[in-house]
Amino acid sequence: MYITLKDINKIYPNGYHAVHNFNLEIEKGEFIVFVGPSGCGKSTTLRMIAGLENISSGEFLINGVRANEKGPREREVAMVFQSYALYPQMTVFDNIAFGLTLQGVDEDVIEERVQKTAKILGLTDYLDRLPRALSGGQRQRVAIGRALIRKVGIFLMDEPLSNLDAKQRVTMRSEIAQIHRETGSTTIYVTHDQTEAMTLADRIVVMKDGYVQQVGTPYELYFKPANVFVAGFIGEPPMNFARSKVEKGCIRFGDQTVDLTAVRPDAAALEGKEVVFGFRPEAITLREQEKATRIDCQVELTEMLGDNTNVYITSGEQQAILKVDSHDTPETDAPLRFYIPAESIYLFDGETEMVL
Ligand code: ADP
Fold it and tell me: 191: CA distance to ligand 1 center in Å?
């Protein structure tokens, strides 16, 4: 294993326990994303990997060798931060070359490596410019170039797209994916944005309050969430939830009774249990299906987004969002019947919130 994090904890000097028993093994070349709401410990974990923050307990290994005590340079990591921190008086070329110049690398070698890096990043035509004559996206590419040129084993990025506007973010996101494909560098990337995580990652680490909630591929997190938190965090609009007790094989969804017996073979075993019932907005259908559960509701509001429509519905006090083909956009203030296929129904333990 290339990188191993074993029972890593971070307790800040003020006593705050920011990261609890973090465990992860990373293979060479993997693109790992740490995702979770602000303050959940993503940056702290990344900074411990970078060597910018000491590890309170646990073991950090690179290539099987303990690296807890190694400084940032010895760890062979390069980090890109959310602010680009370019030198304003230096050209793009000099900004990218800076680390190599400091190391006293030969000019010919610098020239060759800057040109190669610039080519990967599409900056060849901008090498003579000063940072102020670049767009936000181009500046961020220079910052990435500066890290990339060091040819280190581990590439760390902390919210690198957060200073860009929405359009630049989408472009830069695909460029980062492309750079990763071309360089094959092991990358650990921090973001609070689940779309960034889903589109970039080989594997995602979902964190909350300093604890890892689940580690998995985007596919696993979307289809097999371990708990209510992950189910609600991954996916946009988020999964719909309804709390209820299982009675006679049925649960309540607002003023509707949902029969679980046809869709869950384990319905009898859940009798009397408090559960959280979940389904994704996009998993429903408006046409009757076999092995699906039926729900009647009231349409409160619709949002036509082009190819599909978000439908805000209620049943009694219960609210939910459905995503339908825009050609099927229902009338507002009218009743609607929809179906949830058996495989798209999630049940979580009402107490532990773990998947059942
Ligand atoms: P994230 O990157 O997920 O937004 P951070 O890792 O930056 O979260 O922070 C995790 C928690 O640790 C937060 O509650 C934050 O306030 C706290 N924290 C961060 N740095 C320090 C520090 N130097 N001293 C004490 N607490 C800190």
Answer: 14
The answer to whether 297 touches 254, Cβ cutoff 8 Å, is yes
What mean pLDDT value characterizes the chain?
A: 93
Would you say 247 and 75 are in contact if contact means Cβ atoms under 8 Å apart? Answer: no
Rounded to whole angstroms, how far apart are CA atoms 273 and 108? Answer: 71
Ligand 1 pocket (Cβ < 6 Å) reads 12, 14, 16, 18, 36, 38-44
For the CA of 40, the closest atom of ligand 1 is 3
Residue whose Cα lies nearest atom 14 of ligand 1: it is 39
Q: Are 48 and 19 in contact (CB under 8 A)?
A: yes
Q: Are strands 31-35 and 186-191 parallel, antiparallel or unpaired?
A: parallel
Pick the residue whose CA is nearest to atom 18 on ligand 1.
18
| 338: pLDDT strictly greater than 90 | yes
- Protein residue whose Cα sits closest to atom 24 of ligand 1: 12
List, in order of start, the domains of the chain with CATH numbers: 3-233 (3.40.50.300), 240-349 (2.40.50.140)
State the distance from the centre of ligand 1 to the C-alpha of 194, rounded, in angstroms.
20
> Over 80: is that where the pLDDT of 163 sits?
no
Cis peptide before 237 (omega within 30 of 0): yes
CB 143 within 8 A of CB 84: yes
* Torsion from C-alpha of 89, 72, 102, 104, nearest 10 degrees: -160
pLDDT in the model for residue 138: 87
Please give the model's pTM, rounded to 2 decimal places.
0.91
Q: Ligand 1: distance of its center to the CA of 178 in Å?
A: 31
Give the other-Cβ count within 10 Å of 90's Cβ. Answer: 15
Identify the residue whose C-alpha is closest to ligand 1 atom 1. Answer: 39
pLDDT of residue 262: 83
For every residue of 66-101, which 3-state class applies, written as one string? ECCCCCCCCCCEEEECCCCCCCCCCCHHHHHHHHHH
In whole angstroms, what is the distance from residue 62 CA to residue 90 CA?
Answer: 34
**What is the C-alpha to C-alpha distance for residues 288 and 348, in angstroms, rounded to an integer?**
26
Token readout for 178 is 């492309």
CA of 39 to the centre of ligand 1 (A): 6
Distance in Å, CA 165 to ligand 1 centroid: 25
